[in-house]
Amino acid sequence: MEYAVSYLCELAEVSRSGYYDWLKAASSRERREENDELDAELIIRIFKEHKGKLGALQIKMLLENNHNVVMNLKKIRRLMLKYGLIAKLRQANPYRKMAKATQEHQTCPNQLDREFDQKEPGKVLLTDITYLYYGKGQKAYLSCVKDGSTREILAHHLSSTLEMDIVYETLRKLELAVGGHFHPESLLHSDQGFHYTHPVFQDKVKKLGLNQSMSRKGNCWDNAPMESFFGHFKDLAEYKSCTTLMEVKAEVDRVIYHYNNHRYQWGLNKMTPVQYRGHLLAI
Fold this sequence. Notes:
Number of helices: 11
Largest sheet: 5 strands, mixed
Shape: elongated
Mean pLDDT: 84
Low-confidence stretches: 94-99
């Protein structure tokens, strides 16, 4: 028997001591497998509830906040790999239409310089527009304003066109959202798109008492948090199956409410944007 063990160990290129250690650890491996199955059951349920649109960090925060379960991040990633839980990834935007501004349009200097998080709610306001394809090739446009410190979406407006009303309505909703009381040093930051360089838009911004800042031309990193939100939004929203603009609007409203109030974020001390706003104001 010992000769057979030695022969087989030699074939497998393992030591006899290593083989016996492996045998002794059989019971602990079985316990680990049982624990894995129990933990994986909860992870799989959460993953399916969110339609496969969660990564390991989001699952860890949901476990802690909604289920009172503290689980090692490496373990979550290991179990997700083991059970084939691969989060749906967004596709990179292959192009971005850029409207050519007329001579009367004026750009503004970049006053933000990527200092997005200044730990003061309402001080840094980021804005941009993205497109949403739905139904049978229809296109809608979503304009948003995001708080740079709390990551909360303060105002949003959906439109079927890129006419100037999309940004005027966004400003109007932003004013309503803050009750007309902006941070005394509020800075509205955008790219150099047609809408934001338009003299009427710039006049409206000034009347609200906001300073205006713009990214450098062709530099998406200067407004990265806004780009990041649109990417997460397109991961979370089920707008492609909608058949009408009203259905898209309802889905946009649902996802943004969920994002602000129920989506825990690692970079916000595992809080939601609304919770983190309250946390900063209480400091």
